[in-house]
Amino acid sequence: QVQLVESGGGLVQPGEPLRLSCAASGFTVDHYNIAWFRQAPGKEREGVACISAIGSTFSSNSTYYGPSVLGRFSISRDNVNNMVYLQMNSLKPEDTGVYFCAADGHVPYPWLILPNVYKHWGQGTQVTVSS
In what order do the strands lie in the sheet with 18-25? Predict the structure, then answer.
């Protein structure tokens, strides 16, 4: 059974960093496309970052980012511990939202980071950036 559990959310001040973790079970993270999404109140779910599966048809073990986080966020994968991380630097108030980890074995066009193509989701973790 595929399960994803996010952790690491919290309240931080603008400019501070935060690292989110996604613990995976029931599959190995290196063979799945893993993405982070976020959703702010009243807004649609937004693709933040993606790391493609090793051996993916489109791009093997590549990382992609949404335009609003490019250069500030970094996604990484720990194959030994079956974890995926999202390092968030220079946080802004507009980064506030619930952050979700998602996974799927086959994702078309992973660079688009589209939520509707991911089958497995975690429960989310709240990130609040405020002074």
Answer: 3-7, 18-25, 83-88, 73-78
End-to-end CA distance of the chain: 40
Round to whole Å and give the CA distance between 78 and 55. 16
Q: What is the pLDDT along the chain (131 residues), one digit of tens a residue?
A: 999 999 999 999 999 999 999 999 999 999 999 999 999 999 999 999 999 998 777 677 899 999 999 999 999 999 999 999 999 999 999 999 999 999 998 888 888 899 999 999 999 999 999 99
Contact call for residues 101 and 21 (beta carbons, < 8 A): no
Q: What is the rounded CA–CA span in Å between residue 14 and residue 2?
A: 34
In the chain, the amino acid numbered 87 is: Q
Phi, psi of 57 (to 5 degrees): -60, -40
